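TL;DR need structure tokens for one chain.
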Amino acid sequence: MATMAIPSNLIPASLFSTPTELANVTSVHLGRRRLLGWMLALSCFPLTPANAVSDVVARYPWLNRLIDEDGLDRHWLNDLLKPLTLDQRVINLMNSQAEAKPYYLYRPIFINDQRINRCRRRAQTHASLLQSVERRYQVPGKFVMALWSLETDCGDYHDGFNVLRSLFTLATGYPRRAEFFQGQLRHFLLLAREEGWEPSKIQGSFAGAIGQCQMIPETMRRYAVDFDGDGRRDLFTSVPDVLGSIGNFLHGNGWQPNGLYALRLGVDPKLESLQKKWNKQWRTVNDWLQDGVTLPSHAQRHTSDEQASLIRLVYKKEPGFHLVFNNFKVITTWNRSNHFAMVAKELADKVQPG
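>> reply
TL;DR here they are.
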């Protein structure tokens, strides 16, 4: 026989058939087999406080920043996040985005008669507003319209994802970009506090983008504007705020009035090796010329010290190469995809040529 004293607060009551058995176990003489059985059962239960499993902040220490630095209440934050479960649809969509398609398959999603015609009609409807945005931010209205169209078809398309759950899913269940989305979850909760939103009620994209121009929370906090002067930054229903915020974003990220965007280069075998060698590098036009790149005849106004990058897009019959410039780069700060930046230019020119 063996004798073992076990603190009663460490013993799950569910292991015993009666309260008396539980009360006596702390001083009872136990048979070897039964003692070993109970010890094995006890090892399956973590010796943590009863509420630790439901303490989301304790489970994810990076949330402490919202409490210690941003002043959010721990109990409120825990109660807000505790009911959330991971949304597998969000993970699936993150792993199958349209930008991964070759350009000849990606382009028709956005460059089609239905979208072009709707964008043109909306541009006519809001012509005066677009002129005001152009004057204030020195960005072409056609690019403002293109981004509005690409994101939500000029406000006609609305994603039905709960933003709080989407961001929580990506912050805790998508390791590849978890740190980025932890930051976006923080900005979303701060934005909700600033704007007076109920965080659990806001709808947006699977990646946590918000409003008719689909700004991620950090971007919205920085660039959203009250363009209609009603005292609120309303990217859900106010077209002036939506278009003004797009203009403010482009201006704030370095859009150059009358600046260069992209040049399609002719077929040249050396471009393939040059693009691989200098992938994602920015060099002067003169550097590219010295490497043997030939500019099209209509590109006479390019200066030798202008920065450019060489990109490769997959067209149906063959790859196409483009030198892209500052304003193309600005669009990639909105969406990192070269595909997106190129269709933005194509759509803008179809909405308003020139």
